[in-house]
Amino acid sequence: MKGWTKAMILVCLTAAVLIVAFFFFKPQLAQEHRGAITVANPYNADEEVSQALEQLKNNPETAMILTGSKSSSRQIALTFDGLTDRNTIQQIIALLQRYNGRATFFADGILAVEYPETLTDIQNAGQKIESYTLVGQSKMEAMPIEKLVYDFCRTKKIIRENTRQEPALLKCNDTKYTAQVLQAAKAAGFTYVVQSDVLVNVKQFSTPASAAAVVASLRPGSIVSVRLKNKIELFANEQKKKDVQPAVDKQPGLKEISQPSVGEKEVVRAVENLLIALQKAKYSTVYVEDIANHNQTTAKRLENRTAFASLSKATSFLQEQVLGLLSCRTAYAAELVDHKSQEIKMISTTEPALSYTFGGLAKRAVVDDVLNKLNDLGIKATFFVAESEMRKYPETVRKIIANGHEIGIAIVPKNGETFDEICKSIILSRQQLQEQFGVTTSLVKQPWGVVTDTTREAVAAVGCQLIGQSLNIIQSKHKDYTSAEQVINEIFGKSKISLARGQIVHFRMDFYTNDKLVADLLEMVKQRKVDNIAYATSFDSPALNHANDSSYRLKPVGEILTNKKYIYQYPVDPSNVSERVRNNGRGFPIDQHNFLSEVEKRYIGNEDVTYETSILGFSKMDVRRLDKQGFIHTEDNVIFLTFDDWGTDAAINKILYVLRKHQVAGTFFIITHNVAQNPNLLRTIAMQGHDIGCHSDLHKPMVVHDPRTGKLTATQDKEEYTQELAEAYQKLLAVVGDATVNGRPALTKFFRPPALAISKTGLESLFADGYEYSVSGSCSTNDYKAESVPQLVKIMKDGVYTENGEVKKGAVLVMHMTDRAAYTAMSLDILLTANEAKPDSDPSKFKVGRLSDYLIAGYSQIDRKKTLQLVHSSGNLQK
To answer: Where does the record place the NodB homology domain (predicted)?
Structure first.
């Protein structure tokens, strides 16, 4: 059982004991075990079992086998088979949210009893939960039908009691769906049993390459199942059971584990590899129930398609005639070009703007209060109105329009509603909005419930855009809260310092007991999470300086969507990415003969990086050949501004404003792990003229000092580090791969080592992956530890000037863009303002350079003379 944790062993043994108990010693089970399945507890399913067995006698129908179906759209149904520890499940859920993934979790009953919070996490994230039998046992076709019924009914009740929802689908692990299994499933209340088209374990996509290979083999419409746990057979086939004496390391009846387990980190990394590969291959993920619904409605949809097409054309013609005759008011109605079957939760834009959306018109007093507050704050928002609300509250709708707000359509498809029915509902709502209120719109929102593929397809088919939200302010537990403070603290916590460009924040006006709460909330969110993004100092505030454009605006969704100046495609279209940028992973040839000479050319060091503290794998003689100063070769008074890590809009937007104010460019070395949660911010950095470099994906230094041994040690092996570097670059490529500055790519192949530490293995991986320069720098400002602006300004000056006041030519300042670096923007503003005040004739006046203008082909850090000759001959560098 090598590789298994104590927790996994305990879970397996617990499951084995419980199953043995209820199958062979029913009903005497351990009362003291938390969540034990006993006759007295809520999971007793004796009544359901009796009814199912009776049905088997009278009407032994069989459940249908659900498999994938051929599809013209690139969709697969993603499932996870078997629960695992809660932390791993939470990280998988977070990845699904990050990559807009939908998945069905097939839960085994025993672990659901043991860890009901995991089911809550899955449900709260909007993912689906179905039955994986009590323990995910394999070869269930060999079990008696009574035991099958007992297993299926008991698991179903466990899931129902913990989720308040009836599982509709059953999946049996590695089991032949014989007539007996199908009869037991039907008797237990399952219409479908699920047969996966593709079954994989996490080891099969442990690297990006292996994940890409798995995805390349998929057929659209398949059900793809990821087994989170190893295959365990709790009971041997009784007919073949001959072992009399169990092995020392086995429990009686427990088969030997077939393969070692993988840890939490490997599982999470593998799932992310899979989701990234699916995204790159332009696959979207759906729930298994959507496959079932598709199979049921395909025939009917084909029959109705012709009729609906005629209806759609007739409706479009009618709308064109009406628009030609009437001068209709349009509340920022979006004229959308790209009608893809997707739900927009964050608008892909670099505009410094985000949106408030509202729904629920039942409380007139609340709507009036919200409108008054929006007017006071100068905010225009988007209100999503249902067709029934147009009929019930027409004066309220007119008041919203009169106040200059945008109107969208709210729909709530009923369970089982077909494609054509949803289309018809949207068309009628748009027609009513136009005829009754003179407003056209292309925006549709489903305010609550899981958005199905059928809904997405219907919205796109009628030429509309489906709008979701990045942040839903409403939570059921907040209904009776009395103050906005209470809600804000729980919605945002300590980690969400600010909102972001392109985010959509949704409020519901008919929910809270306190009618004043919504208006208070929208104001408090603006004050604390939007206004704090602006650069506002005593000497430069947006309120006093009209040139200070650092504030973010709150605008209607449609207005942001139609501002094509800022809209971009994410992920970027690979065909728009130049070959030079795209070919990372094809580094220049390196071997044992030329490695050190290449490092000499391509490593810009730092005086604090020494053989004793942060260099591994090089001899002392080798280290003497490496750069230790960190200056870029130039004969001019040029310095370079660089920023590390990642942060929120509140931190990074202030830095961007200061750089924009002084018309200088910097290089941003990005930690890529969380970039996908806010791609707009990274895109903005690139589009404002700055270089983008890499600072790794997880910010693991190549080498660390081990306090136990007193020695330097690597944090990852070569394969792991190579993989991380490749992943980091691909994440940057997906956001800024097609962005250019003065006709050249914004995405560079520059790397800054985390903690500036380097190792021979790390640099080998770096250059083999296609990175061209490793850039540390001449001055580490440690701005994240600064205690005041004056202190940090002095550190910056010391990095730029000598003791005699001369400019340190080629100096590279290392700063940070994290929220902890609270004084960086202001200190940099002071430094640049003082420099600009100097006359051009002042020898202490410096210029700010762009690294990509200097680190060009042929640049050599070890050969200053040759590099300066290159500069003079090429004329490429900005002086």
So the answer is: 74-286, 637-844
